[in-house]
Description:
Layout: H1 2-20, H2 25-31, H3 33-40, E1 44-50, E2 56-63, H4 67-72, E3 75-77, H5 81-87, E4 93-95, H6 99-105, E5 116-124, E6 127-136, H7 144-189
Amino acid sequence: CATSLEGGAGILGELASDLAGEGDLPELLTRFLEPLLRMSGADAGSVRAISDDGDQLSLVGSVGLPEPALLAEGSVHHRCGACGQAASGDSPVWASALSGCARLVGIDAFASPFRRMVAVPLRHRGRVLGIYSLFFAHGDGPGADVLAVLKSVGELLGLALNNARLEQQHLRTTVMHERQMMAAEVHDSI
Length: 190
């Protein structure tokens, strides 16, 4: 238990440090799945971002999920199962039966060893921007202390998603402004 909490503190420290630097957001989100899997005892994990229109949860990265699940779960409706519940709330959501996931996509992608899942919202300033899910083949999953760390990681990853979206908006605005300036220069030249 103390080892899990020490690992959680290390993950939080490393994540906070990485958020200060520039980097590839999907790579950052996926990279943090490995230590989260070790800390929680999970066997696989995925990270999803909510689409700009708020209708879909798009797969950003994963570790340990079977290929059929990756193909089928690239983008799912934001109200889908435990992931949708987490995307609508502020706390991790447990699912003991993953058959709902397979039923919604029409294939048996989760007819794998996974029996339980926890979906954790990626929140920033009261807004859910995505979720990450951890899948468990055995056991009861992490205790309340580890769940608290998972929720804190969700908040930091939410900050990362928010910063990436702000950067994209800034880039679009800058490009649009430059195009307008070039068009005005061409117009004035003519």
